[in-house]
Each structure stands twice: as structure tokens, then as C-alpha cells.
Amino acid sequence: MKSKYMFGVIIIAVFMGIMGYLFTQTSISYEENFSIVKTSTKTIKATGSWVKEKNYIIDKDKRQFSFFAVDYLGNEMKVIYNGTIPNNFESATSVVVTGKYQDGSFHADDILTKCPSKYEETFEASSKS
Amino acid sequence: MLGNVLLTIGLLGGLFSVVMYFLTYKGYTNTLGKARIGFHIASSMTVIASLVLVWSILTHQYQHLYIFKYSGSGLSTGLLFSTFWGGQEGSFLLWTFFTAIIGIILLDYTSKRGDLEPRVMMVFGLSLSFLLFLVSPLLKSPFNYIWLTDTFIDIKLINQQFLSLPFIEQFFFSDDQTNTNFIKMGSELYGHLVANGISINEFIIDGKGLNPLLQNFWMQIHPPILFIGFAMSAVPFAFAIAALLKNDYKEWVRQSFPWMLAGTMVLGLAIMLGGYWAYGVLGWGGYWGWDPVENSSLIPWIVGVAAIHTLIIQRKTQSKNSDGRFVKTNLILSMLVYVLVLYSTFLTRSGVLGDSSVHSFAEPGMLVYLLLVVFMVTFLLIGAIGFVVRWKTLSIEFEQDESVLSKELALFTGAVTLLAAAIIVIAGTSAPIFGNAVEIRFYNELNLPIAIIIGLLNGLSLILKWKANKGKDVLQKLLIPVVVTLLLSAVIIFAGKVFSVMLILLTFSAVFTAVVNFEITYKIVRKRPSFIGGYVAHLGIALFMLGVIATGNFSEETMVDLEKGKSKNVLGYDLTFVDFNPIENGSKYSFNVEVATADKNSKSIVSPVMFVSPFDGSLMRNPDIWTMFTKDYYITPVSYSDGTKENTSEGEKVTLNKGESKEYKGNKITFNKFNFPKDAMNSMMGGGSFEIGIELTVNAYGKTYNVEPKIKGKDKQQEYIPVEINELDLKINVEKLDAAGSVNLVLSSLTKQTEKIAAAPKEVLTIEASVKPFINLIWLGVIVVVVGFMISIFRRLRDT
């Protein structure tokens, strides 16, 4: 009986160990300040918004979609995404891009556009104040 | 008003019924009838309130904030129905609605089975009451009036004839950024309107409409089925508590089992319907993205599947004087399913996933956040306390022969492995609570070995007999399935060029499950057809796994330009952009692309759709698929250009004063000074040749470029010499300069200009094409699993 429990405990410990290790390896932190994003070499989820004045570019040859994002402090950075422009991009109020900052631009693996429903709330909030 | 009254009465009825059921459980004899009446009031009020909401939506009662926010007059009837659950309040009501319906069925079921009713219905009634409290007028009622909170309404949605009324002006707001005008709707304006005899329904003529992502068939069926699954998950919880209350752990397993099966089946189906929605309509390109919201309903499903397997062991090991094995495990898992459903609701509705999920719901406010936590913790505590109180009975160890080679142990190990998968998904999904997130590979890398183990264990457990097995017998029985599996796997591995070790193992594991289950199904289907459910479900899982291997690793995709009428070979198929035509009254455009095999024997028209959504003005792109037997050809539209409008922008004109900087496409351009040689002045005056430079500094990406575009004058003719910075894709030309110290520059992109020369007017459709081999196995697998579940439910219902 004892050995059965020991076996179970070891299995669980090994499993938790592997999971914990991979968790730290794949963990991504959020960052809203682009100046920090630009100095980090890790994969980051950066939150900002699209600079509409600077049009986005779809590069068909490279299969790249790129645009300029700005954070709440006004820091701008170029975001390059290998893939198609996401639905709702034009009307999204904020975008969350996941990737790394390299060679002067942010290379995103994923772009998440925020629902405009949220925008309504913020507009209401700002109007009230 | 009516809806809120109904919901409030329902809540009171629910609470009354819980108390009455409790008294009945305590031994009172005259309270059972009252408890039933209370429950029927709660459930019928919920049903009527839901009908009232449907009616209000269909008749466009925009005085209700919820209907104004999520519905609109231009929607088809089917879509109007789906606005019922388009927002948070309505989806809570939908959940309450199904809980009420399930409750009525459960009441009937339990009332026919001894003294089960008061104990089960007491707990289930509590769950219904919690939901009714959530949709009560104080919290998230969809019936609350629009003027109770300040709401900004676009004037387009307001009846124009009232805009000239004198009092309107003070409620007028405009947003310069988006150039839209709003009317602030609140109690004050409502007062004015009432005083003038104008009803809100006349005043507001349209709702905001439904998010275009939700405007499709799948929106009409995925959420209802998901909420049926959520509602059903409360049943095994109630049965487990009922067992703890009675301190009798024998009967509940049999009685609860068909509910557990049905709930798990419905939840699983709902999850995969969501997956198909994401794949076929939303254009995510795949059926599963490990999105936290998808994950949050997957977690209780996995635990439910684990529970099914340990419940089977308890059933099989029960005898006259034994409750069977894994009593504690079964109680915990049955209760955990519901607690995890509540946790899932908390994750998706409380706003904690805000930045990490595509499904981001707006934050519901602190009150609802707290209530969701209280809801979850209450049910967790009920379970935990019941468990502790009964620990004396529960901790009795039953005598049993332990054998390493037994079906029990194999099933139990399988359940534990499933729980490990659940823990992985919980860990990754909960990370946003701590301001973190994990990469997709966290899930993939950890779940891959788990899938392999589960497939192997599944095949093995079915070969093993209950209790003990002789090693020799097992090997003998394994021989044929293993040989067949090896042969089939080898064919798949070489034909499909599967050369990664883990994938080879997964292929073997999936094929092994398929072979064993197929063999057993084939053997027993004629003699005992009602027993095949489990085997059929496993066969479905095996097909699903094979589908995952094929699509996960052999999908190809690329982005191409298709010129109208010209065919182009893309991923082995000849694609021709035929034409496009307006659909749905011209609100959308369907782009027809002919996809043909290289030999032209087989072809199909694939018509992805693009449109600008009137809801929020964004461009929506819906994919279309040519589903073939062995693969899907998947086309997502990217952009369309008719060749005339292209590159009209000549660049941006900016005026800079000396020392001033301007930003252009990420480049910071500073005008330092004029380079104005002394003799240039004289030369200029005298009409001779001269040269003036404009010294600029361009800062971009940490680099500094010093450039000097020039103006050359000769014989009263002026010539501008631009500068080009290739690295920055930037061209700077001078348009005009002012001696007072300012300069007008024209900034443009280099590539756009070259493109402009090359682009002759032609119609070009840009698409993203991909080939998804054997994705049909995934959907087929899901269907087979559901059929298997149904057969099992049918059988298990008969032995309650």
C-alpha cells in the first residue's frame, strides 16, 4: 500500500515539475509601455492602439501585415505580423499584439482586436467626466 | 416591467422551494407539496420571462437597454432570436431558462425514485435561485429600462422629428474624433419626454444591432447548446450532495450516471460547434485556438469524461455489502464539474480575461464580479463541507483484490491522465488572473503525451477483464490488434510522411484505439446493440485524434493575388477569380473563385464574402470552403482592388518651421536649417544659377539620417531635388520654401511610387488559401462520439 502511494506521489511530482517548467518557459507577460517592450528580448503581450493616420500596409509578397501602434504614453512602434489582417481591425479601439521586439519593429505572432462594445463604455466614461 | 416582476417572483419561488425541500428532508411531511409549487413557480416564471424577452425583441422594445444594445430592426427573425443571448444579461437568462427546464425534468425524474427528490431538488433549486438572483432587476436583468443609466445614443437611431424639440439640445453630445453625434439618454431626458407625451419607443427607432461576428447560423445554435450543457452539469452535483446528505453512496451512482453522460455529451457538442463556428465562419483558420474562453468550457468537459470512467468502476465493483470502489473520487469529480462550470463563467464574465481572449466581454462591474465569486465559492464549500462531515464513512477502505493488470486500474489511470490534462488547461487559462499568459505551445506540448497515453490506455483497458488478468492471456489478446495497428500505422506514417517521434506515437495510439474499439463493436453489435455506446464514442475519439494529426501538421497556407480571369496554381489547385456579386440586398459582396484540380476533372466555386459592417464600420471577411472527401480547400478574402483607385495618394504634405519636428510613418523628421550659401543670394537676385539645401534630420528606429533635399535654380527655372532613404522607404521632396524660415515638404513612400508605375488597371482579389487535409475526420469524430454517447444514455437510463 505504501509503495502505491509513493509511486503516485512521484508521478504527480514529476508531472507538476514538467508543467511548472513549461509554464515558466512559455509564460508571456503583459506590457502597456512600449519603451519597456522595445528593450525586452522576451515574448510580450503589448497593448496599444493602431495609429490610423499611418495607414497599415499589407505586403502580399512577404505575407506581412504591418501597422504602427501607439501606447498610452504616446510611444509608437511598428508592428509586423505574418498573416492576414484580422477581422474588425479597422474599428478596433485597442489591439493586443503578442510577439517580440527585434531590429526596430515588433514581430507579432498574434493580434487580438478589442471589441468596439468596450469602446462605447469608455466613450461614455470620458464624456461623463 | 413585466419581465422584472416575473423574475422577482421566480426568485422568491425558488428560495421558498429550497427552504421547503430542506424541511421535507428534515422530516416534515406537509412541506413537499409546497416545495414543488415553489419550484414550479420559479421555473415557470423563468420560462414566461424568457418568452416576454423574445416577444420584446421581436417587437423591438428599445425602452429596454439590453434590447437597444444588442438588437436592431434590420435583423432577420432568426438573428433576432439570437440577440436574446447576444449580451451578458440575456445569456445569463438563457442559462437560467435551461436550468429551469432541466429542473422540471429532474423533479419528475427524482420524484419517481424513492426519497431522492427533496435532497436533489434542494440543491438544484439553490442553483436556479442563484441564477435568478443574477438576472434580478438589481443586477443583470435584461429588462432594465434604458433611462436608468446614462446611455449615449447615436442620433441616427433617434426619430429625427424629435431632434428639433427645444429641450433636446442640452442632451446633445458630439465626438470630434469619429464625427458622430449622440443624445445622452438618462432619467432627465426621460422626464422631458414623458412631460411632452413622447414614448421612448417612438423616440428611439432602432437598436445598435448585433455584432457582425455573431450574425450567423452558428450563433443561433452554439450558445443555447452550451447553456443546456451548463444547466445539466448542476445535476450530478445535486446527486452527489444528495448522497452525502443521506450518507449512502450506492444508489446515486446509477441514478446520476445518465445525467452525467447527457451533460457531458451536450457540453462536448457545444464546444465543437463553437469550434466549427470559428473555423467555417469567423475565419480563424482552425477549429481550436486554445483561447481562454474555449478552454474554460473544455475544463469541466474533461473532468466530466474522467468522472464517467470512475463512475463505471464504482458501478461494476458494487455488491450487496459494498458501495464499490472510488466512492470519494466520484463524489469529488461529480461536484467538480459544476464548480468548474461556475469557474468558467467567472473567467469569461468577470472581465479578468479582458486582454487575453478574443471573446472579451466588457467588465460587468464589481457587484457581479463578487456575486460570481460567491456563487462559485458557495457551491465549492457546500461540496467540501459535506465531504468533511461524512469523512468517517467515506474514509472506510473497502477490501479489494488489487491487481496491476485489471480493467479498474487501467480505467482509473485513464481518468487520472484526463485530470492531468484538465490541470494543464486550468493552469494556462487561469494565468491571466495573475496578469500573465502562456504561449499556445504550452498546451500542445503538454497535451500531446497525454493524448498518446489516453489512446493506449483506452485500447488496453478494453482488452483487460475486470478484477485480475493473467499476463499471458492479455498478451494473446493483444497480439492481433497490435499487429493490425502496426500495419495500419505504418501505412499512415509512410503515406502521410509522419516523421516526428511524438506524432508517430500518437498515430499508433489513435489507430490502436480505433482497432480495438472497432473489433469489439463489430463483435457485439448484433447480440447486444445497446452495449456498443462506449465503443462507438471511443471510435469517434480515435477518428478525432487522427484528424488532429493530419490537419495539425500537414495544413498548408499561402497568400496570393488573383487577377480576374487568369488562373493561377495555388497549393496544387488552379484558382481563377471569376467575378463578384452583391448578396443580401447589396450589403455584402461575394467573391467567386473557381477552384479546380490540376486535371480539371473536379472543380468548385468557392465564394468568400467581404463587407463593411454597418454595426461598427469595420471590414468583415468571411471565408468559404470547398469540402472534399480527403481535404478542405479554405479561402479567406484579404482585399480586393479594381485597379483604378489604387495609389492615388501622392504623399503627405507637411509644413515645418526651423527646428520643428514632425512624425511621418514612424519617422521623426526635423528641419534644422537652410543651407544657404552667401553667393547663392546674389546669384538668385541676379537671375543666375543657385542651390539651396534644406538640412533635415530623420530619426527612425534609433538611427539618425542627415539628408538635404535641394532647390536648384537656373535661368529663372527652379528644380527640386528630392532625397530618398531606402531603408526607411521614405522619399522627401520640397514643395515650397519661405524665407521666413519654414519649408513645405512632401513625404511619400518609395515602394508605393514604384508600384504606381507598374500598376495597370486590373481587378485583383487577394486571398489567403489553405489546404486542410482530413479535417473532416474531426467533425466525423465528433458526430460519432455524440452517437456513442446517445446509445449509452439510452442504455443507462433503462437501469435506473
Write the SSE topology:
The complex is a heterodimer of chains A (129) and B (800).
Chain A: H1 2-26, E1 27-31, H2 34-39, E2 44-50, E3 57-59, E4 64-70, E5 76-82, E6 95-102, E7 105-113, H3 116-128
Parallel strand pairs in A: 1-2, 5-7
Antiparallel strand pairs in A: 2-4, 2-6, 3-4, 4-5, 6-7
Chain B: H1 2-25, H2 32-58, H3 65-70, H4 77-82, H5 88-111, H6 116-134, E1 151-154, E2 172-175, E3 180-185, H7 187-195, H8 200-203, H9 217-232, H10 234-246, H11 251-280, H12 292-317, H13 327-349, H14 366-389, H15 391-394, H16 407-430, E4 436-438, H17 440-463, H18 471-496, H19 501-524, H20 533-554, E5 556-563, E6 567-570, E7 573-583, E8 588-597, E9 603-606, E10 609-612, E11 619-622, E12 624-627, E13 631-641, E14 652-657, E15 661-664, E16 667-675, H21 678-685, E17 690-700, E18 703-707, E19 710-714, E20 717-721, E21 723-725, E22 730-738, E23 742-749, H22 750-758, E24 764-773, H23 776-798
Antiparallel strand pairs in B: 1-3, 2-3, 5-24, 6-7, 7-8, 8-9, 8-10, 10-11, 12-13, 13-24, 14-23, 15-16, 16-17, 17-18, 17-19, 19-20, 21-22, 22-23
Question: Would you kindly provide a written description of the structure presented here, covering whatever features stand out?
Answer:
The complex is a heterodimer of chains A (129) and B (800). Chain A is of the alpha+beta class and 129 residues long. Chain A is built from three helices and seven strands. Chain A has a five-stranded mixed beta barrel. Chain A is elongated. Mean pLDDT of chain A is 78; it is low at 116-129. With 800 residues, chain B is α+β, with helices and mostly antiparallel strands. Chain B is built from 23 helices and 24 strands. In chain B, the strands form five sheets. In chain B, strands 6, 7, 8, 9, 10 and 11 form a six-stranded antiparallel sheet that branches. In chain B, strands 15, 16, 17, 18, 19 and 20 form a six-stranded antiparallel sheet that branches. A four-stranded antiparallel sheet of chain B has the order 5-24-13-12, covered by helices on one side. The longest helix of chain B is centred in the N-terminal third of the chain and has 30 residues, at 251-280. The model of chain B is unreliable at 645-649 and 753-760 (pLDDT under 50). Classes of the chains: A alpha+beta (129), B alpha+beta (800). Strand 1 of chain A pairs antiparallel with strand 4 (436-438) of chain B.
